[in-house]
Amino acid sequence: MLVGALVMGVLSGLPIIAAGNICCCLWVLSGGFVAAYLLQQGQDTPITPTDGALTGFLAGIAGAFVYLVISVPIDLTIGPMEREMMRRMVENMGGAENFRNYADRADLVSAPVRAVISFFSMLCLGAVFSTIGGLIGAVVFRKAPPVVLDQISRVALDLAGCCWANQLARTQCHH
Questions:
Q1: What is the longest distance spanned by two Cα atoms in the chain?
Q2: pTM
Q3: Which of 60, 80, 101, 175 could form a disulfide with 126 if both were Cys (CB 3.0 to 4.6 A apart)?
Q4: 67/91 same-domain check
């Protein structure tokens, strides 16, 4: 589940790569998908779709927290550059004084508000789409159920194996 959360959170938090979420929440779905895959690999018996959905759901919730931890420092680092680019664009268009005053006031409020809104958005999207990814992963990666032999089948196989071994020994002795 944690690896699925890392897939979702890290890929959704990186600036350019996060655009993959525009395509049907790709990274969020992938987080649940990877979580279901790892759950199935850790078990000998096949997982149920419910197991995959629950694992995907938990990966989505944890992935939102990973997203928050990744995106806030990146936003603090890249945010000033983005604002400066926006100021220069507005200055080139004219009317920069009013925008500059607005931007200075908005900087104080926008970063925390943007972080809270994006976290809760990712929390909701992660809960829904990562659950769907886990459900799909459970169906795709489902192992075949183990074959259970009853006592009669075991005796029949043992007899067949003994007969085959005797036949093989006779053929080798006659040559």
A1: 105
A2: 0.74
A3: 60
A4: yes
